[in-house]
Amino acid sequence: MEQYPQVSIISTFKDSKDMLKIVMDSVISQEYPNIEHIIIDSASKDGSVELLKAYEYNYSERGSSLIWKSEPDKCIADGANKAAKLMSGSYFIFLTNPFVSADSLSLLIKAMLEGEYDAVSGGVLFHSDGKITRRWRGTKWSWRFGWMAANETLCLKKELYDKHGPFSEEFRASFDYNFQISLFMDKSVRIKAIQVPIIFFYAGGVSNAGISGSIKTAKEDYRALKNHNVKFALIAILGKCIAAFLGYALASRKDISDQLPL
Fold first, then answer.
1. How far apart are CA 10 and CA 91, in angstroms?
2. If pLDDT is split at 50, 70 and 90, which confidence band does 214 have?
3. What confidence tier does 255 reach under pLDDT thresholds 50, 70, 90?
């Protein structure tokens, strides 16, 4: 078994130059040696393209490849599928937020290889203005009662995308959940959850846009479950909502400003 199989990190951005820089710096800082980073930029006009050009050298110096395109896309899923088509790694992870530490990716791959799993996910530190607003510990329970892996911590074998992809463009906020349901229903797929924070999640985004965004996401989640003919779909939706509420309600509000990438 190869000690350091190649990992493809796929990312999508649109007019998010500051976050793009944070994520690229985070990828470059990873101690895991065998990485390719594929970025699909949605025709940004904020200087993102110039930044991507400049960072080609940074990746080259690290011994990694930066593969990128800047062109219009229809949605996040469309951009993610474009990136996935360019993957050459044995494993992949979708990332638009920074890793928590330099060994984050190594922890995922180590767990994957040691247990011969098909997919491994971890925890998330949600924050706003430098204070923790929700902690997703990464604990796994039944997906039929609302569990899903934190998408940006979910590292998978490339063959799972080949088998269960592409990401459905019918879903704007829940393309990741729709994909995961397909994984969960495949009894041959072995998924491991490690209770270690893997990424810092910055507030915002399609599925985190306040109450209205949460309602829209819940509706899409329900549609995703029905798309896979899952019985008692409302139980899964209720479980997801309760878990999210408790996650926010019990958040420590700890200030982690000194830990965040600038």
1. 11
2. confident
3. confident
Contact criterion met (CB below 8 Å) for 77 and 168: yes
E strand intervals along 82-212: 91-94, 119-128, 131-136, 155-157, 191-202
Superfamily of 7-256 according to CATH: Spore Coat Polysaccharide Biosynthesis Protein SpsA; Chain A (3.90.550.10)
Model confidence, pTM = 0.93
pLDDT at 211: 63
Distance CA 167, CA 171 (A): 9
Nearest one of 80, 89, 85, 134 to 108, comparing CA atoms: 89
What pLDDT digit, counting tens, does each position of 56-113 carry?
Answer: 999 999 999 999 999 999 999 999 999 999 999 999 999 999 999 999 999 999 999 9
* Spatial separation of the C-alpha atoms in residues 36 and 43, rounded to whole Å: 21
Q: What is the CA radius of gyration of the chain?
A: 17
Encoding tokens for residue 187? 């009894």
Residue type at 125 in one-letter notation: L
